[in-house]
Amino acid sequence: MADTLVVDLEKRFHGGPTVRATLELPATPGRVAVLFGPSGAGKTTVLRCLAGLDQPEHGRVLFHGEPWCDTSARIFLPPQRRRVGLLFQDYALFPHLTAEQNVQYGLGALPADERRERSRSLFALLHLEGLEGRRPRELSGGQQQRVALARALAIRPRLLLLDEPLSALDAPSREHLRGELRRLLRELGVPTVVVTHDRLEALALGDDLVAMEGGRVCQVGPVADVFNHPAELAVARMTGIETVLPGTVLKREAGLATVEVGPHHLVALEPAHEGSAVFVCLRAEDVTLGLPEAAPTSARNRLPCKVVSLAHEGALVRVGLDAGFPLVARVTRFSTEELGLAEGRALTATFKAPAVRLVPRP
Amino acid sequence: MDRAAILLSLRLAAWTTLLLLMLGLPLSWWLATSRWRWKFLVEAVVSLPLVLPPTVLGFYLLLALGPRGPLGGAFESLFGSTLPFSFGGLLVASVLYSLPFSVQPFTAALAGVDRRLLEASWCLGVSRFQTFLRVVLPLSATGILSGMVLTFAHTLGEFGVVLMVGGNLEGRTRTASISIYDAVQALDYASAGRTALVLLVFSFLVLALTYGLQRRVWASWPTRS
């Protein structure tokens, strides 16, 4: 209870969808939770309710046991009194102030020398030295982002909220800043909530993941758990599992399950849930391709298949296959050449039983 | 040239501008941010002086400000003097007549300030009023200034309302525009011409200044894509 962030709210939009979010997250120093989902999932609404910029119709927000909002007790703490550092998607820097004035903006109550000291240390921490006198329009996207982050950090926030922190940047800087931001968030030791629709960002930044879709929370848990064990199909789609097929569990035996998918029987680890109707989820990275005559390996699932499509993705190649059902594999370019991959080529696709995730099918 | 009338016009315009800055800013802020469903009615009322003949506005004002009117009665019991045919009455009329000339530019300027900047400010612990002073006002300064200039210039050129409510008392309610009319009626074209030229040149300078300022709009708030 003590070091948690509890959200249980309902927010209706006029003529729009209703967001219902119930979640409890550890909010310890340096811990990062990611609100993840497609646009329109309600992630930003939850973030705005955390900041106090939106007021839910029903529900409550508790931070470290302190009610920030509780509609039943008519408690609503305005944003001024929550001390949250909010980083807007487009940074929302004050255009008429310099970078330094932006960072010092929220420090009006402090004596001048302390204000200067605090902004100096933030400029150093975020590698912004020399940019103090620049106006926002004279800064690059990455620099603006860091100034906005410094401004949010200057008030020593109890909770840091980042709304799509990298989406306004171009692809190369995004990749570079992902790692840097993660390191920084760890260093800062402020509990953080990040909103993103980007799978890589979620993986790179988050300790905990809240998967949202259509205004509701689908799954909450440590990032790896959610990615590896999606509780439902919507989450599997979001986390980018390329192959999702309807299947039927035929038998369960010694911790393994035999699943019928199209013309094949696949072996998977026995799912925790009852019922035979499942979705079979398979990541492209887990599928190994070999020649049809290759010797057997330890992988339990071997499917003869044909190459349908090839798409280059940097160092990797996404291979679309027909194994009686559509299947996607991702291999290195080197393997593509070694195997002589081309459309129509006959191959064997292999994958291990634990790589097959079974998700209950309604 | 009627110096007293020109000075009176300038004094009236200055006071009107000041009052409309004080009354118009809160009203404009409300218009720019409110989501009240009947807001459009208020907008319509504010804009009425743009389309009403000055005589209509003047007529109602005369009724309202007169000793038997609601406003005039209260004013008389408070201050012991009547509003019509006095500088005070003129000022009330000018404020109402110039209302759209300040409120419309003010509202446009205030509405142009990105709402997220306000939210960013609130999250940084700064109160709504302080946010207005530190973010909204600096970012809408040119729009507010042009509203003030328009109000000033419009009040200088007022005729019908002033005549209805203020009459034509030399030194008290005879403004420049009325003085010109008077001079023309008296066939004193030379005096009318001089006063008119002063008004023309002054109004042109004021408007040129306004549009000159507007050309240099802040081009720096976050672009919306």
TrEMBL record, chain A:
Biological process according to GO: molybdate ion transport
One Gene Ontology CC term in the entry: membrane
Swiss-Prot/TrEMBL keywords: ATP-binding, Cell membrane, Ion transport, Iron, Iron transport, Membrane, Molybdenum, Nucleotide-binding, Transport
An example molecular function term from Gene Ontology annotations: ATP hydrolysis activity
The ABC transporter domain, residue ranges: 4-239
Domain Mop, first and last residues per copy: 296-360
Record-linked Pfam families: ABC_tran, TOBE
CDD domains (alphabetical): ABC_Carb_Solutes_like
Record carries keyword Ribonucleoprotein: no
PANTHER family named in the record: SPERMIDINE/PUTRESCINE IMPORT ATP-BINDING PROTEIN POTA, SPERMIDINE_PUTRESCINE IMPORT ATP-BINDING PROTEIN POTA
Name of the protein in its database record: Molybdenum ABC transporter ATPase
Species for this entry: Archangium violaceum Cb vi76
Automatic annotation (TrEMBL), chain B:
GO molecular function term, any single one: molybdate ion transmembrane transporter activity
Localisation per UniProt entry: Cell membrane
Database matches in CDD domains: TM_PBP2 (cd06261)
Major site of localization recorded for this protein: membrane
Entry superkingdom: Bacteria
One Pfam family here: BPD_transp_1
Entry keyword set: Cell membrane, Membrane, Molybdenum, Transmembrane, Transmembrane helix, Transport
Record has Cell membrane as a keyword: yes
Listed GO CC annotations: plasma membrane
Family named by the database record: Belongs to the binding-protein-dependent transport system permease family. CysTW subfamily.
The protein's role, per its UniProt record: Part of the binding-protein-dependent transport system for molybdenum; probably responsible for the translocation of the substrate across the membrane.
The protein's name: Molybdenum transport system permease
Phylogenetic classification of the source organism: Bacteria, Pseudomonadati, Myxococcota, Myxococcia, Myxococcales
